């Protein structure tokens, strides 16, 4: 799914999706937006908070 497609499913801008993906959102992403993203991606909300692939620095 592209950022534009996800944005359309969630009713937010593609620019905002990009900022979320890159960790550039200055304030917390709202729970309703997170829930809508998870629904659009057919995943549980908790999956958005799983960081298994990050390396320890």
Describe the protein.
With 57 residues, the chain is mainly α. Helix content is 47%, strand content 0%. It contains 3 helices and no strands. Helix 1 crosses helix 2. It is globular and about 30 Å long.
Keywords summarizing the entry:
3 helices, 57 residues, mainly alpha
Structure, briefly:
The protein is an all-alpha fold and 57 residues long. Helix content is 47%, strand content 0%. It is built from 3 helices and no strands.
- Biggest sheet layout: none
Which word captures the global form?
A: globular
Average pLDDT across residues? 91
Count the helices. How many? 3
Number of strands: 0
Topology:
Layout lengths: L2 H8 L3 H8 L9 H11 L16
